[in-house]
């Protein structure tokens, strides 16, 4: 922890946190970390299953839906870590590499780590450590929530569309394993949006945290919304596969370009990184609209929605 003077210590001792990390939050973070790893395993199993059944086209699509989001989210997260790194200190490439690897496999591992440290500091009554751990937890929660959004809609959502389109073309291909993957995919999508919206609220001091009941209602609403839209896209893909794919790509490029021109998000140090981010949001907008930044809705948000 960084050095703080006596006055800062006194201020931190008397400070009160705007939000608290509850046991419910810690449990849900642990579940999210496990679900992320489970999703990766299921995607790999599906690709292997297609390869064994000589469905090489489906196998290639599945592998692409794993590799492309992995590359994009790794680039985005690496940029987040580099931008947030103190300019006076050199970037430790080895540490950066392992953070990227762990983050890909267990997105919420770092968030869970700081949440547990926060709980331990609170139990000891160490106010300074408690505030510091909460600050680190909040920063990780925002970063990972941001990445989880892309994980879900660049990896999980296309997987769902592909699997549903296959099942709609051949209902006999619906197995218990595939049914379980549908359940996990739909639940992970809804929870991703809930976590992303919650992290956006936490960084706004004028808003309260959402309680368990509110999260439950929001979760089921988003579950129904994303499931219905995904099923509709999958139905079209089962009838017009290439046409649906082309329209989705066009939608992604169009929305990403509008977002880049209208909002000009300052995410990365280069315009290329900012445009990649906007294209990623364009892919998200195929399934659901969510604002890029906090604040009131502007004209570009109305146009994109």
UniProtKB/TrEMBL annotation:
One of its GO terms (biological process) is phosphatidylserine exposure on apoptotic cell surface. One of its GO terms (cellular component) is plasma membrane. It is found in: Cell membrane; Membrane. Its main location: membrane. The chain crosses the membrane at residues 21-41, 61-84, 176-196, 217-238, 244-262, 274-292. InterPro entries: XK-rel, XK-related_scramblase. Keywords: Cell membrane, Membrane, Transmembrane, Transmembrane helix. It is a multi-pass membrane protein. The keyword Cell membrane applies. Belongs to the XK family. This is XK-related protein. It comes from Drosophila hydei.
């Amino acid at each position: 922890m960084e050095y703080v003077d006596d006055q800062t210590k006194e201020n931190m001792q008397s400070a009160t946190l705007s939000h608290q990390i509850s046991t419910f939050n810690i449990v849900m973070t642990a579940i999210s970390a496990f679900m992320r790893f489970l999703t990766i395993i299921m995607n790999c199993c599906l690709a292997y299953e297609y390869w064994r059944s000589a469905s090489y086209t489906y196998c290639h699509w599945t592998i692409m839906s794993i590799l492309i989001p992995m590359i994009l989210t790794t680039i985005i997260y690496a940029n987040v870590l580099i931008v947030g790194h103190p300019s006076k200190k050199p970037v430790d490439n080895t540490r950066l590499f392992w953070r990227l690897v762990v983050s890909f496999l267990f997105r919420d591992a770092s968030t869970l780590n700081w949440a547990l440290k926060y709980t331990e500091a609170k139990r000891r009554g160490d106010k300074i450590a408690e505030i510091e751990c909460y600050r680190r937890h909040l920063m990780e929660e925002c970063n990972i929530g941001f990445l989880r959004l892309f994980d879900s809609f660049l990896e999980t959502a296309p997987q769902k569309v592909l699997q549903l389109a296959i099942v709609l073309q051949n209902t006999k291909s619906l197995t218990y394993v595939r049914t379980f993957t549908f359940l996990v995919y739909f639940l992970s999508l809804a929870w991703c949006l809930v976590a992303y919206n919650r992290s956006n609220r936490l960084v706004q001091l004028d808003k309260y945290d959402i309680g368990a009941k509110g999260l439950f209602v929001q979760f089921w609403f988003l579950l129904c919304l994303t499931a219905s839209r995904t099923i509709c896209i999958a139905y079209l893909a089962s009838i017009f596969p290439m046409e649906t794919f082309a329209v989705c790509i066009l939608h992604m490029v169009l929305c990403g370009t509008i977002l880049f021109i209208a909002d000009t998000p300052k995410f990365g140090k280069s315009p290329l990184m900012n445009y990649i981010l906007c294209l990623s949001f364009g892919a998200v907008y195929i399934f659901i609209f969510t604002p890029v930044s906090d604040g009131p809705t502007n004209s570009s948000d109305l146009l994109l929605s």
